[in-house]
Amino acid sequence: MQFADRTVIVTGGGSGIGQAMAAGFAREGAAVVIADRDAERANAVAGKIAATGGKAVASHTDVSVSQEVEAMVRLSVASFGAVDVLVNNAAASGGDNLALMDEATWDRDLAICLKSAFLCCRHALPGMIERRRGVVLNISSVN
Q1: What angle do CA 143, 36, 86 make, to 5 degrees?
Q2: Which domains occur in the chain, in start order?
């Protein structure tokens, strides 16, 4: 129970690596905030964690939008008291060939993969700094 009494936000927590990390943190005692732009997936993962006795809440969040990230952090604090760990895992890969990719796809991928980490840190770090503790984990891929 390494994460007992800790709150972890996992962006992109509704599927794949994010879902696996959220379940792992919950097994170790963390209260987990499942942030995903797909509300159904976020709710399903939070439900699975709760069904096994863990603590979780879903946050329907587009992590490329500052107001939505701010609301996600507020939900985390309201639900569990603080944010101890932020996992920036959300990603998008709308195109894999720069010669064929349109500018809108590039902008969306960059916003979800890079801008989101900035926004999530910007909104979660003040509480961590105030408490003088916290961890930010940034996930990346070959994409």
Answers
A1: 80
A2: 33-138 (3.40.50.720)
Task: Write the CA distances from 56 to 35, 37, 43, 61, integer angstroms.
Answer: 11, 16, 9, 15
pTM (2 d.p.): 0.94
The helix or strand, by DSSP H or E, that contains position 79, with its residue range, turns out to be: helix 66-80
DSSP 84-96: -EEEE-----S-S
Closest C-alpha to 69, from 128, 133, 143, 125: 125
Phi and psi angles of residue 36, each rounded to the nearest 5 degrees, phi first: -155, 150
Q: Is 30 helix (H, G, I), strand (E, B) or coil?
A: coil
Give dist(CA 55, CA 65) in Å, integer.
26
Side chain identity at residue 129, one-letter code? I
Read off the pLDDT of residues 108-129 as tens digits, 9 standing for 90 and up. Answer: 999 999 999 999 999 999 999 9
Per the DSSP assignment, residues forming a β-bridge with 59 are: 35
Integer Cα distance of 130 and 61 in angstroms: 24
